[in-house]
Write a structure and sequence with these properties.
The complex is a heterodimer of chains A (255) and B (326). Chain A is mostly helical and 255 residues long. Chain A is 76% helix and 0% strand. Chain A has one domain. The radius of gyration of chain A is 18 Å and the shape is globular. Chain B is globular and about 70 Å long. The chains are: A mainly alpha (255), B alpha/beta (326). Chains A and B meet through helix 1 and helix 5 of A and helix 2 and helix 3 of B. The complex binds adenosine-5'-triphosphate and magnesium ion. The site of adenosine-5'-triphosphate (ATP) has 12 residues of chain B, from strand 2 and helix 1.
């Protein structure tokens, strides 16, 4: 490739497009809130497990994880939408533009980040009102983390989407990647109490560090030191971005 | 800038899709500032050829340089010099017409101060000013097409590819586009490569025409040169008469039945018309006309548009199909 550098103007243009489209597709925004709310109110209140964090009930304990879940589902779904773009012809327009694939990737990834952060914001406000009282500082901190996690997870979605050719794969990714990432990530349970194998799986899952860091931010409690969580998240951000850009290098129009 | 004379230069450019050879070793040079038309039946390989030059499809073998840059190893440099209007719709449904043009201008690095003015000018040319802020989703097929053309032109590329640009346009819009292309060529010296199924379009716009079939160039020349190769004028006879009636007349180059009439290619028809009519027992109608590019097309790509490719209404069917893909 003649240039691995991103063209900031073009990144901004692509980012703008994604945001405009995002705010026009309200159905997607609402559909994605359904399962997190079910988890919060059915699992959180109905099954009411044990909370390892003193002073917080089980529903409050899983709230940070569910917040991350919203980001996870929004971001992966958004990323996989590139398959759809490929099948409709308008990806051609972007592929033939004088921009590098890293520019295209960054524009898309940053656009998706806004989507994930917005969904997190809605749930945060909802949660602050009826589940877990939060000050503005905590909300701001959680949003910052949400943006970071969103970037990481969008990268994964885009990278996979760029390599897939049919929308049938969408369901497969959801069942074999997104849901396992969620369950192994410890959003619903206390990792320290989990068995050895479950713990191993959890530590391989980038989502685990997101959940742990979010818990630290909102509840002041985490399994790993927050600095370690943050380092892991940043590492995964960089790694998935590089992997995603490589995936975009092979991006072609499909019929 | 590297120095070069040809805007486009291809050597043995080939593309295979599995067993199909879509483009079969094309060698072609297109001068800077030339308007060049590619004619050919459906499936001839025109779109594939253009897609390779635009770096959207990787060639199976052969090489090409566009604006002096290699299409494989310097694809980004190639893309900086070109604009394309795709055959299939590719405007973004979820944005408005104006937003589509804005996005495109920013991606192609049109100076920020100029974007606004250019968009307004382009919208006026393609007659979309009053619908510019509506979502493309709500546009008619022809309106999308016009937006697509506006988008391909707005960054004023040095080399412009137009894949059936006026497909589905009404006659007035078509003429407006032709006028703009002529003007662009004169004003900016843009090299234009277009494919079309409208022979009139190729004839009136282009300096050279290539007839392409089964991925190969069959004929190449100016419209006049190609017409001369057909060898004469066309005489259409309606009535009770068959090709055998003209056996032995050396000025009749060709005689074939076509839609219930007989089509003759005759050298110097005005002089030999009487001799022709004398050979016909019963005759209802005679038509004499100059050779058109359509005759050239038919001669070099086989009599009829081939069956597997659909009939004469294919173009209209395709418009319908492309609209339904959304
Ligand atoms: N992505 C693809 N996969 C497989 N075959 C393809 C693909 N693209 C084109 N072809 C085949 O290559 C051949 C040339 O197609 P192409 O689209 O270049 O024709 P065309 O000259 O543009 O035709 P039309 O006038 O219908 O637009 C056809 O036989 C087509 O089926
Ligand atoms: Mg075509």
């Amino acid at each position: 490739m003649s240039s691995m550098l991103a063209d900031l103007n073009a990144v901004y243009a692509l980012f703008l497009r994604e945001i405009k489209v995002y705010f026009r597709e309200k159905e997607r925004m609402i559909a994605i809130m359904v399962s997190p709310l079910l988890f919060l109110f059915v699992v959180g209140r109905g099954l009411a497990g044990h909370s390892p964090v003193p002073g917080y009930n089980y529903q409050q304990f899983i709230f940070p994880g569910i917040l991350c879940m919203v980001i996870l589902f929004t971001s992966i779904t958004y990323g996989l939408y590139i398959i759809w773009d490929k099948r409709l012809d308008f990806l051609k327009e972007v592929l033939v533009a004088p921009i590098s694939r890293s520019t295209l990737f960054l524009g898309k990834a940053l656009g998706g980040m806004v989507g994930g952060t917005m969904e997190a914001f809605i749930l945060l406000i909802l949660g602050a009102a009826i589940i877990l009282p939060l000050g503005p500082l905590k909300i701001a901190g959680a949003l910052l983390l949400a943006a970071l996690f969103s970037f990481l997870l969008v990268n994964i979605g885009l990278g996979i989407g760029a390599r897939m050719n049919s929308m049938e794969g969408f369901g497969l990714v959801m069942s074999f990647l997104t849901w396992p990432m969620f369950f192994f990530g410890g959003a619903l349970f206390d990792l320290t109490q989990a068995g050895k194998w479950l713990r191993l799986a959890a530590y391989l899952d980038p989502f685990t560090y997101c959940v742990d860091l979010m818990r630290w931010m909102l509840l002041g409690w985490s399994v790993l030191p927050a600095g370690l969580d943050l380092a892991a998240v940043l590492f995964f951000c960089a790694a998935t971005a590089v992997w995603g850009i490589i995936s975009f290098g092979g991006l072609q129009q499909t019929r | 800038m590297s120095d070069f004379q040809a805007a486009i230069q291809t050597e043995g450019l080939t593309k295979r899709f599995g067993g199909i050879i879509a483009v079969d070793g094309i060698d072609l040079a297109i001068r800077e500032g030339e308007v060049f038309a590619l004619l050919g039946p459906n499936g001839a390989g025109k779109t594939t050829f253009i897609s390779m030059l635009c770096t959207l499809v990787k060639p199976s073998s052969g090489t090409a340089r566009v604006a002096g840059h290699d299409i494989v190893s310097q694809s980004l440099a190639v893309r900086k010099n070109i604009g394309i209007v795709f055959q299939e719709p590719s405007v973004d449904d979820l944005l408005s017409g104006r937003e589509n043009l804005q996005l495109h201008s920013m991606l192609y690095g049109v100076p920020r101060r100029e974007i606004h003015g250019r968009i307004d000018a382009m919208l006026a040319i393609v007659g979309l000013s009053d619908r510019a802020d509506g979502l493309v989703r709500t546009y008619s097929g022809g309106m999308r097409r016009r937006l697509e053309i506006a988008r391909g032109l707005i960054h004023e590329p040095r080399i412009l590819f137009l894949d059936e640009p006026t497909l589905g346009l009404d006659p007035a819009s078509r003429r407006a586009v032709w006028g703009y292309l002529r003007d662009l060529r004169k004003r900016a010296g843009t090299t234009i490569i277009l494919t079309t199924h409208y022979m009139e379009e190729a004839d009136s716009l282009s300096e050279r025409v290539a007839i392409i079939d089964h991925g190969r160039i069959r004929e190449l020349g100016t419209p006049d040169e190609l017409k001369r190769k057909v060898g004469g004028d066309v005489v259409l006879l309606k009535g009770d008469v068959g090709p055998e009636a003209f056996a032995g007349l050396e000025f009749v180059k060709e005689a074939v039945r076509e839609d219930g009439s007989l089509r003759l290619t005759v050298a110097d028809a005005s002089r030999h018309l009487k001799a022709l009519i004398d050979r016909c027992p019963v005759i209802e109608e005679v038509q004499v006309r100059r050779v058109t590019l359509e005759d050239v097309f038919l001669k070099f790509t086989g009599r009829q548009i081939r069956d597997e490719d659909g009939g004469a209404d294919t173009i209209f069917q395709r418009i319908a199909v492309s609209r339904n893909t959304r």
